Amino acid sequence: MDICSVPVAELTSRALGASLPTPTPARISERRACRVCGRTGLLRYVDLGEQPLANALREPGDVSSEARYPLVLQACMGCKLSQLTHVVPKEALYTTYAYSSGVSAGWKQHCAALAQEYARKDAYVVDIASNDGTLVREFTARGCEAYGVEPSESFANAGYNVRTAWWTHHLVQRTFAGRVDVLTAQNVLGHADDVHDFVKGIATALNEQGIAIIEVPYVMAMFEALAFDTIYHEHLSYWSVTALNAVLRDNGLVLRDVQPLDVHGGSIRAIVAKFGRSSDAVTRYLVTEHHDLRRSAYMQFSARVTRRIAEISAELAQNTPYYGFGAAAKATVMLGCLDVRAFPRAVFDATPAKQGKLIPGTKVPIEATPASWASAPGPLCIFAWNWAGDIIPQLRSQGYAGAIFVPLPKPRWDTV
Q1: Percent of the chain scored above 90 by pLDDT?
Q2: In terms of Cα–Cα distance, which of 189, 304, 297 is closest to 235?
Q3: Distance of CA 321 to the CA centre of its chain
Q4: What is the DSSP letter of 274?
Q5: Residue 340, class by beta-carbon neighbours within 10 Å (0-12 exposed, 13-18 middle, 19+ buried)?
Q6: CA angle 82-83-86, nearest 5°?
Q7: What is the largest CA-CA distance in the chain?
C-alpha cells in the first residue's frame, strides 16, 4: 500500500483532536518516574522557575494573561536520563508551530551532508517531525522516495510529501510497517512523552535491512556548554547513551554506533538497526557515563548554571541598549532567566512567521533582519549561539562592524 493512498483524514492531527482549541493554561501532568526505565526517586537538579512556552509567540496587542509552567529538570540515576518534572500536552505545543528549520544555513548544510551519506537510489525514506521538509527534500533530490511525518498543521502545505500526524506505533502499523530503508529522527525523540511507543514505531517501520538515524542533544554536552537555554517545555528528555541504549534494546533494536555532532550545542547521532553489534564507541560512551554521571555532576551543573546566568545578565545590563539575533526557543529561555534590565530593544529573526510578534514572557519585539547590516544598530547578542560560528562571519561579510556578544558556552565579545 502506498502511503499516499492512505486517507488524509486518518492521519491528520485534526482527526486526533490536535486542532481543537487548547485551554489556557493547558492541563499539565507531573512525571515522577523515569520514562525509560520506570525508576522513581529522581534527582531534581535544575529549577528555572515558571516559564512560558518557548515558541508561544505573542501578538503585540494581546493583553491576556500568559500561561506559565514549571521548568524543572530531574535525573534518573539508573539509566541516566534527564527529564522535566512536568509535561505540557503536545497539542498545546505543536498544533501550530513558528519554527522553520530551513531558515538556518548551517542546519541545511547538516541535512545535506546526512542525506549525501545515507541516500541511495529508490530507497524508501521517512523523516519523523519533518518540519518544513528540509531533510526530506535533500533525500528526494538524491533519488529516494522520501516522506515526512509532521504533527504541526503549519507545514501541511509546505510543498513536499508530508503527512500531518503524530508519530505513533499505531500510525506506523497503518502506513509504513516493514517498508522503510532509512528512517531519520532529528531532535524529536526528546519531545516524546511515551518514548517506548515512539521507538516501537521505529522498529515496526524498518525493514529487515533498514537503519534508523536518531539525533538527540547529548546531556553531557549540555553540562559542558552550560546550555541551560536548551531546557524548555518541548524538550521533555535530555539523553544519555545509557538511556538511549536501554529504550532501543527494550523495543528490539540495536544501537550500532554513536557519533558526536557539533549541532545544537552538542549532540549525538545514533545508528540503529534490527540486527548487528554495538561498536566500541558505544561501549566507551556507556563506561564514561557510568563513571561521570553521578549525583555530584548534576549538582555542580546546577550551581554553574546559576553563576553563568548572573554573569550573562550583568554583562548585557551593562551594554544596553542592544539587539538580539535569533528568536529561537533559546532566546525565550535565556530572557526568562535574566533580569529585565538585561532585555534587548528587539530581536532580529529571518523567519517571516515570527516577525512582528513578541518573545514569550517579555514585551521584546521580533523584527526582520536589517536590509543593510552595514548600517544596522548594535551591539548584538547572538541568542542562537550554537550557530555563532556561522552567523558572525556572515554578519561581518555583510558589513556589520558592531560588537557581538555570544553568551554561551563561554561569554565572549567579538569585535572588529
Answers
A1: 83
A2: 189
A3: 30
A4: S
A5: exposed
A6: 155
A7: 62
* pTM of structure: 0.89
Q: Are 113 and 105 in contact (CB under 8 A)?
A: no
Burial of 41 (0-12, 13-18, 19+ CB in 10 A): exposed
Share of the chain above pLDDT 70, in %: 92
Phi-psi region of 38 (alpha: psi -120 to 50; beta: other; left: phi over 0): left
Task: Report the chain's C-alpha Rg in angstroms.
Answer: 21
- In the block, residue with C-alpha cell 542546519: 107
**Strands of the 267-273 sheet, one edge to the other:** 162-164, 145-150, 124-128, 180-186, 206-217, 267-273, 254-261
Q: What is the residue-wise DSSP string for 323-355?
A: EEE--SHHHHHHHHHS-GGG--SEEE-S-TTTT
CA 172 vs. chain centroid, Å, equals 23
pLDDT band at 15 (very low <50, low <70, confident <90, very high): very low
Smallest CA-to-CA distance from 198 within 161, 147, 225, 237 is with: 237
Q: SS3 for 76?
A: coil
Amino acid residing at 112: A
Q: Place 100 in a pLDDT band, splitting at 50, 70 and 90.
A: low
Cα distance between residue 396 and residue 373, in whole Å:
8
d(CA 128, CA 109): 19
